Amino acid sequence: QQQVKQSPQSLIVQKGGISIINCAYENTAFDYFPWYQQFPGKGPALLIAIRPDVSEKKEGRFTISFNKSAKQFSLHIMDSQPGDSATYFCAASTGETSGSRLTFGEGTQLTVNP
Amino acid sequence: DVKVTQSSRYLVKRTGEKVFLECVQDMDHENMFWYRQDPGLGLRLIYFSYDVKMKEKGDIPEGYSVSREKKERFSLILESASTNQTSMYLCASSLDGSRKTQYFGPGTRLLVL
């Protein structure tokens, strides 16, 4: 079963707009929530991550908002650029020290039009 | 610079063939992972390994096996390829410990005819 649900599946935004991708999780043992970015022909790469002891984390134009009570987190891309066009995956993991396996969402294909 | 390499970018195999996908990392990472990526399904974990000769099943291990004889190398084996195993296969590695970044290879696109 999919323990991390991601929406929307695809998103089209105009240059300069705000892109918002949402994820919801079920497992309350999750305590680490990274986002990965994947360009065509490449493997995913870590973009930004958050721990549940904070409600927001910002790195440049990318912000994660986290709502622990609702078991939801989202990625906001401010001033979206055509170079941000990629597939974005949210993920979650528990705090076990071995393995560090991630559970990924379904992915969102973002297109930023010039 | 961190590097995960996969033996092939594209593979075409016939139903029933035994298929080997190889992954090598040069970062001395303890953990290695095999995922398959399908549209609308995200990345699904097939198997992972947290040490040499150690392996654990992921969410979709059926039809696959793995081998990790050396720390830097993790192989995915399709014992008898089937058409429903046509997919993008991604290998990743990470240091041990919680909340560690996974570093991905470029992927192998496998077509089973």
Please describe the structure with a list of short key phrases separated by commas or semicolons.
heterodimer; A: 114 residues; mainly beta; 6-stranded mixed β-sheet; 5-stranded antiparallel β-sheet; 11 strands; 0% helix; globular; B: 113 residues; 7-stranded mixed β-sheet; 4-stranded antiparallel β-sheet; 53% strand
End-to-end Cα distance of chain A, whole Å, is 38 Å
Helical fraction of chain A equals under 10%
Number of helices of chain B: 0
Poorly predicted runs of chain B are: none
Strand content of chain A: over 45%
Mean pLDDT across residues of chain A:
93
Which radius of gyration of chain A do the C-alpha atoms yield? 14 Å
Helix and strand composition category of chain A: mainly beta
The tally of helices of chain A reads: 0
Radius of gyration of chain B: 13 Å
Q: What class do helices, strands and sheet pairing of chain B give? A: mainly beta
Query: The biggest beta sheet of chain B, please?
Result: 7 strands, mixed
Biggest interface between chains:
A-B, 30 and 30 residues
The count of β-strands of chain B is 11
The overall strand count of chain A is 11
N- to C-terminal distance of chain B: 37 Å
Low-confidence stretches of chain A: none
Helix content of chain B: under 10%
* Biggest sheet overview of chain A: 6 strands, mixed
Give me the oligomer status.
heterodimer
Protein model, in words:
The complex is a heterodimer of chains A (114) and B (113). Chain A is built from no helices and 11 strands. With 114 residues, chain A is mostly beta strands. With 113 residues, chain B is mainly beta. In chain B, 0% of the residues lie in helices and 53% in strands. In chain B, strands 2, 4, 5, 6, 9, 10 and 11 form a 7-stranded mixed β-sheet that branches. Chain B is globular, with a radius of gyration of 13 Å. Classes of the chains: A mainly beta (114), B mainly beta (113). The interface between A and B is medium-sized, with 30 and 30 residues.
